Amino acid sequence: xxxxxxxxxxxxxxxxxxxxxxxxxxxxxxxxxxxxxxxxxxxxxxxxxxxxxxxxxxxxxxxxxxxxxxxxxxxxxxxxxxxxxxxxxxxxxxxxxxxxxxxxxxxxxxxxxxxxxxxxxxxxxxxxxxxxxxxxxxxxxxxxxxxxxxxxxxxxxxxxxxxxxxxxxxxxxxxxxxxxxxxxxxxxxxxxxxxxxxxxxx
Length: 202
Fold this sequence. Notes:
mainly alpha; Endonuclease Iii, domain 2; Endonuclease III, domain 1
């Protein structure tokens, strides 16, 4: 599986911009980030795992793989909602996946063409599909397209890691945006370290 390509230059940039993040990078070491090769299959996975714990998400992904293998719009567009739901997701999510399948098959969403678009345009195209919000679009940008400057305010673990790193009890949007600008153009790499930190905060 391909990985997000970054190295010493990007880590040095972030460390120079933010001493606390730099210390976290130094203590953590290099974090590998795999990037999915199949855009539709990965997008279905992000929809299915919205707003659930990491452990539950792993279980759902495993069930999807066991039931469908690589998910394609042809496989899911004509399935009963109940069959999609049987992997352990809500009926709404099953319907969202059906809707995505239909959008791809009809040409309303050119999923392969998203790779050629800027980040904002990718997010705009995706969020026009029912059931795909900002978080899902941002996860797609990171883990499917390998974009380098994504920092998701909608991701609780990112905010949790940021609060821990800077000793904050809460983080408002304005403060978050300040750090987003500081990390730019490598917000995705900062995200990897904030996620890692959040896993060790109780």
